[in-house]
Amino acid sequence: MILSEKEDLEEQVQSKLDDFQNKIDKYEAEIEAQNEKIETATQEKLNELKAKRNTLQMKLNELNAKTEQEWKDLKSELEHDLESFSEAVEEFFTDNV
């Protein structure tokens, strides 16, 4: 049961991370193609999102090394962080694209 939950969560998190990376790549390519610079405040928000992405990726990499109790704790934390990250990404792209 836990293995299935781990795999499901891993797929969910990786999908969100991949989606974010695709959006970032597209956003940065559009900015470059228009010969524009990203405003400082926008770049700071983008850097914060990238830091959150990196944190989620690190937690995702830790999944398989966890005991059952550690897994339950990490699962809750990861789900919370993923929700927060998803909302921040949505807000960023709503405001800046």
Overview of the molecule:
The chain is mostly helical. It is 87% helix and 0% strand. Helix 1 runs antiparallel to helix 2 (40-62), helix 1 packs parallel to helix 3 and helix 2 (40-62) packs antiparallel against helix 3. The N and C termini lie far apart (41 Å). The mean pLDDT is 88.
Work out the number of β strands: 0
User: DSSP helix count?
Assistant: 3
Round the mean pLDDT to the nearest integer and report it. 88
Share of helical residues? over 70%
Shape: elongated
Estimate the strand proportion.
under 5%
Give the uncertain stretches in residue-range form: none
| Straight-line distance between termini | 41 Å
> Rg from C-alpha positions?
16 Å
Please state the structural category. mainly alpha
H/E order of the elements? HHH
Major β-sheet profile: none
Secondary-structure blueprint:
Elements: H1 2-33, H2 40-62, H3 68-96
Helix pairs in contact: 1-2, 1-3, 2-3
